[in-house]
Amino acid sequence: MRLDQLKAPPGARRNRKRVGRGNGSGSGTYSGRGMKGQKARAGGGVRRGFEGGQLPVIRRLPTQRGFTNIFKKEYSVVNLDSIAEKLPEETEVTPEVMKEARLIRGLSLPVKVLGRGEVDRAVTVLAHKFSMEARRKIEAAGGQVVEL
């Protein structure tokens, strides 16, 4: 057997439909496009989602627009003022300590510390992420920032 002897099995390939070649062919005259109208013209047709001028579904349901980013990272967010308020005696603040103080719900999400509020003492904060402002305020108070 050679490459030039290979043949598709019967019924595997279908001839394309030749339209507009006489009524005897079954696809003459209107060539499967019906009679007049936009969809009968060359290049005719409406854009995807067009509903004839009626407000389309995509605009009637605004929550359905856009897409979901599969790479989005969710964080448990903690601000400096809540650390100062709920943990006034702590010198080392870890995600476990934050959970006990009910600053975060659980340990399943990484923790991000944001810079709202002030830090009045040297404190070591362990978290997965810090905003620039939070980092600056903790270090200015003589504390340490440790990224997990």
From TrEMBL:
GO terms for molecular function: structural constituent of ribosome. InterPro entries: Ribosomal_uL15, Ribosomal_uL15/eL18, Ribosomal_uL15/eL18_sf, Ribosomal_uL15_bac-type, Ribosomal_uL15_CS. Residues 21-35 have a biased composition (Gly residues). It holds the Pfam family Ribosomal_L27A. Residues 77-146 form the Large ribosomal subunit protein uL15/eL18 domain. Residues 1-53 are annotated as: Disordered. GO terms for cellular component: cytosolic large ribosomal subunit. One of its GO terms (biological process) is translation. Keywords: Ribonucleoprotein, Ribosomal protein. Belongs to the universal ribosomal protein uL15 family. NCBIfam families: rplO_bact. This is Large ribosomal subunit protein uL15m. It comes from Geodia barretti (Barrett's horny sponge).
